[in-house]
Amino acid sequence: MNDHAERDGVTDRDVLEATLRFNTLVFSIILGVFAGATLLALSLVAHYGKGTGRLAVALIGVFLPGYGATWPGALLGLFWGFLFGALLGAGIYRINARNVLEKVDELVIAERGANGFTRAVLRLDGHSLGLAIGAVGALGLVTTTNMLVARGTAAESVHARLLSEVLPGYTVSMVGSIIGAMELFVVAYVFCRAFVAIYNWVAGRRRQR
Amino acid sequence: MEALPGDHRDAIIMWALAKLDVVAFVAASAAVAGAALLMLTLALVLKGAPPGIPVGPNLVELAVFFPGYSVSAVGALIGGAYASVVGGVAGFLLATFWNAAHALFLAVIRMRANLASYSID
Asked: Which residues of A touch B27 (CB under 8 A)?
């Protein structure tokens, strides 16, 4: 596709950038609200429950200053969750949409609506989504592990070490985090490919009827 | 299913404002979330633990939220079913919010276009 095709002085790339900005904002807000609400709920469950979720809140609190099983801690969790959720959302959406211009025709199912207007249903690209979520997950694991290393609490991080049960070779160290990140990337990539295959198959089947 | 119009700009806008298929998104989210917990649990079961040491003592804490779940073959199926429900609900919310945001955006554009078409003259 020629991404310099110009009409009224506006290229395809300009149109794409404008739409990407809007969609990045929408996806960031959705993921931010999800993450913030989850941390808030977890904190309140830990606060009012009989010990349920306290360990999870304490572990997350290692990375999010002020987060804990109290009302102020829950509100801080809402703030941190929204902030990091939005940043992750922006990163995932931008990486996912990296090569949209080259294959935009394959990413839409167009169908005639009841009123004669063409409606569009989104198809997903497994490779792009896998790269996006895999990269963000791997970067997250390297960052959090090395935060523990930098704090000097790596030796006491028994819960982080449990990751080696599912990511062989992972340790709470710089080298271990890179090994774990590579494995996590592969796992996330495979799951994303499976997710997209199911989504596209169901969405396509529903429109063939 | 129809072919897309030839104009790239139209295709880009169509892609950007396309809605997610909620049913397909829920199905995919539920399947992947369920499979993830099932495989995670089975991996721990197959790996096992030395005699006298419980298998997956931390993962079993999920039983607080998923009654009946345990780190065992049967528990993996039960956990997979619960995770499918949780994944499906999360997928439903994500797809619905995404579609609602775009529907709202389109409604605002339509409203502004309608207002612009009126003239005092």
From this structure: 198-199, 202
Q: How far is CA B16 from CA A69, A117, B83, B101, B118, in A?
A: 40, 17, 30, 12, 28
State which residues form the domain around B48.
22-116
Q: How far is A50 from chain B (nearest CA, A)?
A: 11
**Locate tokens 């900005």: which residue?**
A21
Residue B69 lies in a domain: yes
Model pLDDT for residues B22-78, shown as the tens digit of each residue: 999 999 999 999 999 999 999 989 888 777 777 777 788 888 889 999 999 999 999
For chain B, the domain total comes to 1
Residue B56 lies in a domain: yes
Interface of B with A (CB under 8 A): 1-5, 8-9, 11-21, 23-25, 27-29, 31-32, 35-36, 40, 43-44, 47, 56, 58, 61, 64-65, 90, 93-94, 97-98, 101-102, 105
- For the stretch B79-88, pLDDT in tens is 999 999 999 9
Q: Taking CB atoms and an 8 Å limit, are A120 and B21 in contact across chains?
A: no
